[in-house]
TrEMBL record, chains A, B:
InterPro entries: ArsR-like_HTH, HTH_ArsR_DNA-bd_dom, Metal_resp_trans_reg, WH-like_DNA-bd_sf, WH_DNA-bd_sf
One of the record's GO molecular function terms: DNA-binding transcription factor activity
Name of protein: ArsR family transcriptional regulator
A Pfam family of this chain: HTH_5
Signal peptide: none
SMART domains, sorted: HTH_ARSR
Domain HTH arsR-type: 22-116
Keywords for the protein's UniProt record, in alphabetical order: DNA-binding, Transcription, Transcription regulation
PROSITE patterns: HTH_ARSR_2 (PS50987)
Amino acid sequence: MDGCTVKVVDADRVAAVHERMPPAEDLTDTADVFGLLADPNRLRLLVALLDGELCVCDLAAVTGQSESAVSHALRLLRAHRIVAARRAGRMAYYRLEDPHVRMLLDLALAHTEHTDALHPEREGTT
Amino acid sequence: MDGCTVKVVDADRVAAVHERMPPAEDLTDTADVFGLLADPNRLRLLVALLDGELCVCDLAAVTGQSESAVSHALRLLRAHRIVAARRAGRMAYYRLEDPHVRMLLDLALAHTEHTDALHPEREGTT
DNA sequence: CTCTCATCTGAAGAGCTGTTCATATGAGCA
DNA sequence: TGCTCATATGAACAGCTCTTCAGATGAGAG
């Protein structure tokens, strides 16, 4: 049932790694950020904002989503302070606010571009 | 209903940004990778593997998950070639195989550590 | 060959996520 | 003041995800 819960093969390594493990809070936080980047449409929005601010209208046009979907997505991103809104009359201009996320985006996109043959979706060992 | 679908505020910007937008395939791929990093337990596994290979047993111990959960998670990560398995008898030693993911992890964790007061989970503009 | 143990797998259920539709808000304009 | 348009919001539903439980696989020991 438990299998290995009791025994540990490399106790020292386990202890050391466990020591270095970031606190649960940090991991949750990080997973959260990754989660926000884990949607193609949200990704499109953020990529669109890499170059500067855009209104909801234009974001919908650029990313090919309904305005409602865009608004919902922006709401989420705003709640996590990844984007920020500037109001001009009835328009709302959004911009990428989190430099950390910008870095992650840059890094991820740079690598994806170079990764031509990586749509495996299959087993590696079995 | 559509609201803005027809009109675009800054047509030039929209065209330019749309031009620079990576192909859908790349975005899906990237979102996919982020999705794999979007779970605290998977994150724990990957962080544990940053220092070198570990068997399923020890991974379960270090990350505090059931072996079954770990196995399922590793299967997923393996399918995307993020980790690789080495077999030694009935043991399976896993290691982090994707340097790109390693970079993302390093970057993300480095920043999360410095981000003491960033558990907002609330509105930014409203 | 049989038994044990580490790992893997499949099925199933609970919960989360993203989209849509309908409607609300609030600014500018006539 | 009343209309229109950009954006925001809420409810609801479909689809995906993660965990667990039960059992399968395959290697080593006797």
